[in-house]
Amino acid sequence: TYRVVADAGSGGVLAEATLTVLPGLPERIALDLDSPSIVAGDTQKATARVLDAYDNVVTGVAITMSHSVPALDLQGLAQTMATEQLADAVQGTIAVRTSGSFGITASATGLSDATAPFTVAPGPTVSGVVSLTPDPFHADETLTVAAAWADVYANPVNELYSIVTAAPGAFVIGPNSQGMVSPGKVAKASR
Length: 191
Fold this sequence. Notes:
single chain; mainly beta; 14 strands
């Protein structure tokens, strides 16, 4: 809303009017995420608005949201999005427990969809599974110990050093999934 003042130029005679500028026709969907990356278990929030050619918000246009997050996490629990209609936007919220790369898409009839990508990193390591090859192990053989690490949602956590090879008289750690060798030590097992 603007106040328009006209001056007659002589004698200080003024005229006033109020001008209301309405948004133009819907042109595009703007989609914003709270963050481009989150950790498993965190909530991702997306906000979608319809804009005109001058980026004014156009209200009254129905917006739907969808996502590419798996319907079930690795533990079989549902991962669904809740949406809320705001005065000038639609807001979607989803708690994501599966690590990976995903997207949220906003759609409105007659407009091109808007998609915003985001990544979900595994949470902190809470468990591991060790496998031995060969098992049983003889003193003159080479033993490979592999460990698979996971977060609380069963997402693999690959940053840890997870392969130990033990040959007669020598122990070597590494490499991890990034090809790095661990500076750690291997303790000798007691019988």
